[in-house]
Amino acid sequence: MHVLHDVEAFRNACSEARRAGHRVALVPTMGALHEGHLTLAREARRHAAFVACTVFVNPTQFGPNEDFARYPRDLEGDARKLASVGVDLLLAPPVEVMYPSGEQTRVRVGSLAEPLCGAFRPGHFEGVATIVTKLFALTGPCLAVFGRKDYQQLQVIRRLVRDLLLPVEILGVPTVREPDGLAMSSRNLYLQPDERQQALGLIRGLRAADSLFRQGERRAGVLRAAALAPVEEATPWIDYVSVADPDTLSIWADEVSVGERVLVAIAARVGNTRLIDNAVLGEDTLPLP
Amino acid sequence: MHVLHDVEAFRNACSEARRAGHRVALVPTMGALHEGHLTLAREARRHAAFVACTVFVNPTQFGPNEDFARYPRDLEGDARKLASVGVDLLLAPPVEVMYPSGEQTRVRVGSLAEPLCGAFRPGHFEGVATIVTKLFALTGPCLAVFGRKDYQQLQVIRRLVRDLLLPVEILGVPTVREPDGLAMSSRNLYLQPDERQQALGLIRGLRAADSLFRQGERRAGVLRAAALAPVEEATPWIDYVSVADPDTLSIWADEVSVGERVLVAIAARVGNTRLIDNAVLGEDTLPLP
Hints:
With about 290 residues, chain A is α/β, with parallel strands linked by helices. Chain A is built from 10 helices and 10 strands.
């Protein structure tokens, strides 16, 4: 696996792979890689002969009081892991190249970016949309692979690609979980042992809603209340427990009867660590407890 | 010359040309083509073996009270003109493809888009940046050619390309003028004979400032006053007559001493027609009266 810091060398390597007749897959990450990321890379490899991965902790998607400075960074470890799953190329670009001096351009997706995490992290999805547009521009025509763990991000990126007519196909990959159901996340590294237990409130909430849904419950308010209870039991710091349309991300009011697919999305803090999780009931399979 | 309405066919044709080893040039226009546009196409041809042109009247760059509905449209005439200067491919895409159902993505350039026309046409440069990003995504790596007549647009697009790391080289082409100095514009079609005379106020303003500048005058206020007088004589409907930094577009205050390059930019209405013109004194050559 080649490790590059130079974006033009990366651009050329991707073009070269295409010229050689290979499909190119891109796996954009912020590093601190775990099994979830490696699943993205393996999935990319299944679909493309040439797999490129990027590691870039993107400053514009962090708010001023968020964890940009302490976000875990381990490029050597990341490179070892990516090489082990057959990634061909790793780009770790300098921030001053991704955001050149005097830069002032942003990409904004509208209503999809407003509810859920958008309401609690102003500017977050604008930062995501902007960096992803840049990474797509560097990679050129490709298959880009993202996790469904960041479900709203995935929907924002799908919309961005359609709207800007980018030559990119998006593949969403199911969330990878620890044996006890906790969604894998680089931020799990922050958790103290007691917080690690509290963190299970999120998957318990999803399971509770899923269980009712599979019994035929369709009232948004009842599903939401079922998801909320285990989260409230685990932590008082809840950003949201929402029941929403999986395509538009519009929040369903409690009195609505949801259809055969419904998004349940949760964001909550345990200690200082903000965690998110979600499931599209009727579509995703949650592991048994 | 091939005329296409299908964007994917256009994308493929551009890829095909690159695969055949040709450099691709793009000339984006809103149609109603005049000699200024044809100069862009000829310039494109000088630099690239394959020249693609687009004709698309972009709704998002027009304000609600502007001339979107009545903007001149003549695709057949445009196609004839482009064929005559050796353009290879013309794309005239449907609006519902450039702005697909549910679209909600916008590209925004910051401070460069704020002064001058940005202050009088809210959202205009966001519309320009958005459509140009889409056209670049369709064309792929290319040389894109724009006129210096729309100087602020050119600077916004240069910034956008740098900031989003797009594989596009931008070429700015000097303004093409009528024999009496009027900058060519599709909107000149709107002018009644008396308005056509009034419209010369803009070039007279630029010439007045240029003449002082060449005599060594560097006081921003004096240059601005010189440019303003002939415009005021021609029309009471002046949006701005400004003296600004040609790179940042920051407006120079009257008391500033400008450097060896200075932008003089003018926007004014004659009758119902909004006209713009500009010159970078110390860089552009204005025709003699």
